[in-house]
Amino acid sequence: MPALRLVLADQLTRTVAALRGGRKADDVILFAEVAEEATYVKHHKQKIVFLFSAMRAFAKEMEADGWRVRYVKLDDPDNAGSLFGEVQRAFSEEDVEELVVTACGEYRLAEDMEGWGRRLNRSVEIRDDDRFVCSLPEFRAWADGRKTLRMEYFYREMRKKTGLLMKGDDPEGGQWNFDQENRKKLPKGYEPPPAPEAVDNEIVREVKALVEDRFGDHFGTLDGYFYGITRDDARARLETFIEKCLPDFGDYQDAMATGKDFLNHGLISAYLNAGLLTPIEICEAAEEAYKSGHAPLNAVEGFIRQIIGWREYVRGIYWLKMPEYKERNALDADRPLPDFYWTAETDMHCVAEAVRNTRDHAYAHHIQRLMVTGNLALLLGVAPDSINEWYLIVYADAYEWVELPNVHGMAIWADGGVLGSKPYAASGAYINRMSNYCKSCRYNVRERTGEDACPFNYLYWDFVMRNEEKLRGNQRMAMVFRNLDKKDKSEKLALRASAREFFKRLEAS
After folding, report:
1. Would the pLDDT of 508 be above 90?
2. What is the CATH number of the domain that holds 299?
């Protein structure tokens, strides 16, 4: 019987499960731009432009291939405003009898979809999303019975499963992880590969105008928009990364520099998470660069670990632990998110740079996200819901399945140790070691207390003392507390006093 096949904006893959077995002459593919999905959080303008534009381009390709396509634009006067509403409208206007859809990537929508069959009084088939290396049942089997769910051990299983960077049963180079080689500061005068060029075509121009009209109050700017919208665009970006960026990616993947918004990073996560690239093709391209001598092992291993290790792992954690996972608040954090996360107006130069980059590009690389904006939210004790929503809003590659574990678990340790054995807290010394930010900052990274001290320094120790009861028993924190115990009472009081003054200024701003 003819089917309605719903394809979501992050499912732009020709082989996506919902399309498999479809009959071009009989079935209808539904694409819908709906206000509900664009505003359940106020997504970055560039994120909406990217997803709507890519969906329009993909729909045109499917139509050219002979599919019957039903495309609902946001400004369609009959737009129902929600995915369910558009599915319901399609059933009333198209000669279709059942709905086929690929499982979505966010719990809130997945829970809603479970009730669609009853509400529609139609057959609804929700197919597993098999675009990942590790299926959800496979992840559950791996996690079953383990006291701790550490990514490193999961990653090794994925290496064995895929055969990537393997010599028989042994890892290429004799070790699984070359992370210690991937923490170099940029050398003086280093020039990274050129930044991506702005993208301008008819579809993008049309969607930009729509977004400015409908979502003008959303975060971000559309100036310098660089996200391609087709699979060919995504493949071209992957090829650029492999050719120009990957050779130095490993050495400098944790580095940061003023005005250097992209450095050697891939800029492919938005394409990957939207379905325009697949994890295996990305990893195979990187592996081939190693085999051909174009890129060193530490770079290729570090990159592949992000794709088949970390990305697959956080997806597994999300679906294993939700919905309870989102409610965890192990450190009882409750402060509001500071305004400078939106405005970039702060004397902390590292934070201003990370937020500016985010505002301008719907992008910041993983160390800016983890060790600047994430680390600061941890030290301040920002309420988990507030900082999680910020990350979900501001990045073009953000969907809750990937955002929540990264922020909730890795950045702010709200999960109490599911992902990381200890909070990823750091003082200004780490930022100074990995960047040139501190040279342009109004604060002195070597000062621990007082008006001129780097706020990360006293906030770090304030965080440790504030959470001492919860963290002192953590073996991974033993050295931190030994250092705390060496401080005399006056120094501890000075650190706490500096933190209090900082919080007062936040509350007054």
Report:
1. no
2. 1.25.40.80
